Amino acid sequence: MADPGVRTSPRNAERSIVASSPGELPEARKMKDESHIVGRDDFADKLVSLLIDKKGDRANLRVISVVGEGAIGKTALVRSVNNRADVKNHFDRCAWVRVGPKPNLVHLMVDLLKQLRVQELRDVDRMDEEKLSDELLRVLMGCCYLIVLDDLCELRVMDELMMVLADSRNGSRVIVTTRNPDIPSSIDLWYPEPLTLSPLEREQSEKLLEKCSPSFDVADLKKTILSKSGGSPPKILLLGGLLSAATSDRRTDLAYRLTHGLPDRPTLQDVVRLSFNDLPGWLKQCALYLTLFPKESEIPTRRLFRLWSAENFVSSPSENGVNRVDAEECFEMLVSRHMVEVARQKWDGSARSCRLPGSLYDVFYQMAENERFLKIYDCSIHGKKKFDAPRIAKHRDISGWGEAKAKINVPEAGRGCSETNAQEAHMEITPASDSSPLCGIQQLFSYVSFNTMKLGTRAGETVVLLKPLVPKRHSSLLRVLDLEGVYKPWLPEELGNILPNLKYLGLRWTLLERLPKSVALLSRLETLDLKYTNISSLPESILEVENLRHLHMTMVDFDCSTYQLFSKKSLNCNIQTIWGLVIDDESLMFGVLNKLTGLRKLALTWKCVAESGATKPFLNLKMLKSLRLRLIWSPSSGVLDLSMLKLERLKSLSNLHLLSHMRVHSLLESHIPPNLKVLTLYCSRLHDDSMGVLGKLKCLTTLRLFAHSYDGKTLSVSEGTFPSLRVLKLWELEDLTAWTIQANAMQCLADLEIKDCKKLNKIDGLQHIKTLEVITLVRVSDELERSVGEKQPDGRIIAKVLVTEFDMNASNK
């Protein structure tokens, strides 16, 4: 029997087990998970109990309010609880929307429906308010859901939303964060006492500051920081980041600026300005550029880094000998100063996405606008041909920003500082006076659109932007044209002639069906992102664009004239990313790929593998770090000999994703790149237990054996193997019945996930692993669940908490 202290779950449910011995976490993740709620543990525990307690009348839909002044940590607290495994797995569906000062109810409902993963829903952007209300009610009926309404400022929108939120008496919850103390009592009379956050006490503030700068023994400086922060978590984090960045020879100067550059009771804006002014000029530009994205939104680092590069804020991949910091280093600097939060992480622990905290966003944007560094416009504004800044973004729902900006009242960078620090405080971006001329279309540097409402017609904003340039072939200074998510934007055939300075062309999720052939004339282009479009072919000359470094596609083949490209010497051998290419044995693209010796990342769908050509694409790719290889064989009964691929020659390869629609004959040590860190196998149908071979990979940190990757009945992990493995995922290994782990194996394993391995009833030796943080079980046998939850002979429980989530498929039927 499972220990009574472990919560169990019903059959056919997802179970996550939080282990008792947390392992070492990456520093950025530690800060994300821990720092923002230091001193709020009691609030977090209370909020969790209010969310998951269904006893008695608490089975009804309830609204939980989190109240407090600005920059007190409301959003951070709710986000930390919302991200917990036991909370996520308790609810069938979850959504988070920021409401703001003047919300648009239609847009809020559209955002909710998109986040609630309604697969059968179509054309949600074209629905009117009544239809959206009906759909939202239908989707939520019968579900146990959690919806977070962040920054609620008025009751009207709450009243309208509550009318369409279904109550199936199964424990659904709505969390509201607000600065208005009068709102909670008007929302839910059953919860008359909201969670009210106050400034941190002295002891709590000291703990938070210690997490920001633990290695510095500077009592006087820390005392000053605690005095100036007044118990505000964002102020403590920012000043702590300032302290951690100060070298020993600069601490005297920092002490002076803390004492004389800040009033006794500084506002958050004062602290933000002090921290911002400490940044070097190029890093200030990187920080302000974050405000082009919608407030509190998740920003993919993939996108951010390429945009920084296109704007020349950081070193470009095409530059040689330029003494500038690269994007990753710049990003880590901002994270260490608590100006940017890591939102999601990749398998290797690096940041997948980030977020500019809302408390900083308003201040940063006002700085950027005052300096005419960038400007945000509402998507509803059409036909504008003159702009207030060289970098613009189109957002939805920016009405109400005037009120927000009036409250901020941030001076331009450099104003209000002492004479000593005035020069340092300046942003190093040439300020523009009120009489400065407006920027015409030809003077724009960046155009980024978040007009992602698909209204059934092509987005016309690019017509207004680009058409004036076409008749006289006027050229533009535009470096960035980012239309990710914009529905089928218009692109002129003369695109390559009128945008000679373009470095970033982002068309991901636009559903475009073709690209102007003149795109190959964009000689300065560094990034071309066509992922998740309907573009199926490209001119082969795109591979001749000298500065192109990143090419993202979805199942794209090149034109039939590849033989012309193969014979040319003008190939861009420095391209680093080709993602989404389709190739077959007869294609001359084999030879082309072999010439692209600078490739770091390659995603390839390879049809009809034949022994005669199997080694061709990889012979010279010595710098390749990531390979996603989808192999399609006809007939499907074919058997792949991995030795044909010669992958062992790829000494730099650290990430291999092998999706094979044929049986892999065997997995031998001599077939595997020796320095792999991440390995994913899918549909390889291995017969032999390959754990002995894989366990010898000393650098391997993540192993994912997905559907039908292994057909055997047993797995055995030998002593001393998998010395670096942190993440192991076993999915749909249908014949697996037994798994044995010997002592001193997998001694770094932190995250174990087993999904749809229904014949596996027990794991012998799991107790030997002391570093487990999370075990997730999805649709496994009750016997396996019980064995994991049982007490060990020494009284230790491998898993402290077993949380449940009703099977999504079952709940949606």
How would you explain this protein's 3D organization?
Residues 1-30 are annotated as: Disordered. Keywords: Plant defense, Repeat. With 813 residues, the chain is of the alpha/beta class. Among the domains are: 1-21 and 677-813, no CATH class; 40-196, Rossmann fold (3-Layer(aba) Sandwich); 281-441, no CATH class. Helix content is 27%, strand content 20%. The chain has a 19-stranded mixed β-sheet that branches. Strands 3-4-5-2-6 form a five-stranded parallel β-sheet. The chain has a three-stranded antiparallel β-sheet with strand order 7-9-8. The chain is globular, with a radius of gyration of 28 Å. The model is unreliable at 1-34, 399-435 and 800-813 (pLDDT under 50).
Low-pLDDT windows of residues: 1-34, 399-435, 800-813
The rough form would be described as: globular
Helix fraction by DSSP (H/I, runs of at least 4): 25-40%
Alpha-beta content class: alpha/beta
Mean pLDDT: 80
The number of helices is 26
E-strand count: 34
**Strand proportion:** 15-25%
Sheet with most strands: 19 strands, mixed
Kindly report how far apart the N and C termini lie: 32 Å
